[in-house]
Design brief:
Length: 303
């Protein structure tokens, strides 16, 4: 350590740097600071464990966003799109836990419903009791879904269950919807981790220049999608980090959601809007902290 600027230390005794405002005493070293900081975080986690395990995962947040979409036909101006994702049934979530989420969707009376993958955490049997509940959801422009990385362990079975609940599952494919004399497309691309995403195949039946909404599980794929004629991308996968710390944010997000984590972004030279939903369920850890489950209500406006 350095000597005190007002004099030398006694022989064999290192000088202590005064701590401002304390009248002297040793400074906290970087190691001590980090140890105390870690202890504070661990203590806070211990104190809030019941909240992060039992309370916040059940505290659904309905977020509302107005998104300007270039090329949106006049007939679709103002439509209400419900976006939900990552229910992860089977990992601390079961069909009965969907009641609040589905009631919230029904209250919104959406024009269009979009689900962006990971209906289960692992096994199709965990989704079967949810089929009649999901089948109750209605929207005049339809219900559309894609598969997430967890769904690819049993992709055909889960796609079939979603279809039986009234969702059209898009796997490198598209569908067209009509309203007010206008037409737009909904495209869905396969998961980038376990599927074979093919944006050209998804656009093969879409007329040039048609406004196209893209469903893609991993949000970071937006950097690729922005080079194609997609006008808006909806994604999940990140869970918003699931655990967020004050002043730090999410210490960890999965591959495929490391750049775009939660909320609204504008990507690429065209500024393609990307909305990342924080998801409903959990995986790996049965906790949420400062990162409530989300139901997104998106109002699309003509740009």
């Amino acid at each position: 350590m350095q000597q005190n600027q007002h004099g030398s230390s006694p022989a064999g005794t290192p000088a202590a740097n005064p701590v401002p405002g304390t009248g002297g005493g040793p400074k906290m070293t970087r190691r001590q600071f980090l140890k105390r900081g870690a202890a504070t975080v661990i203590g806070a986690a211990a104190l809030s464990g019941g909240y992060a395990w039992q309370a916040e995962p059940r505290w659904l947040e309905v977020t509302r966003h107005r998104i300007t979409v270039a090329g949106l036909p006049s007939g679709f101006d103002g439509i209400k799109v419900i976006h939900f994702s990552d229910t992860h049934l089977g990992f601390h979530k079961e069909a009965s836990d969907l009641s609040g989420l589905l009631a919230g969707i029904k209250r919104e009376q959406p024009d269009l419903i979009c689900f962006t993958g990971d209906i289960v955490d692992s096994e199709p049997r965990d989704a079967r009791p949810a089929v009649p509940l999901l089948a109750e959801l209605t929207a005049p422009l339809g219900k559309y879904a894609i598969l997430g990385n967890h769904d690819y362990k049993n992709a055909p079975a889960l796609a079939g269950l979603l279809e039986s609940a009234g969702f059209r599952v898009l796997r490198n494919a598209s569908a067209r919807i009509r309203r007010g004399g206008g037409e737009m497309a909904i495209a869905g691309i396969e998961d980038m981790l376990h599927g074979r995403p093919d944006p050209e195949a998804a656009l093969s039946d879409v007329p040039k220049g048609m406004c196209t909404l893209l469903l893609m599980h991993e949000p970071d794929y937006a950097d690729t999608a922005a080079a194609y004629p997609f006008h808006l991308q909806l994604s999940g996968h990140s869970h918003g980090g699931q655990i967020r710390l004050p002043f730090v944010g999410a210490p960890y997000t999965p591959y495929g959601a490391q750049k775009y984590v939660a909320g609204l972004y504008h990507v690429g030279q065209r500024g393609m809007p990307l909305y990342v939903n924080r998801g409903f369920g959990m995986t790996y850890m049965p906790f949420r902290f400062l990162c409530r489950p989300e139901l997104s209500v998106l109002t699309l406006r003509k740009g």
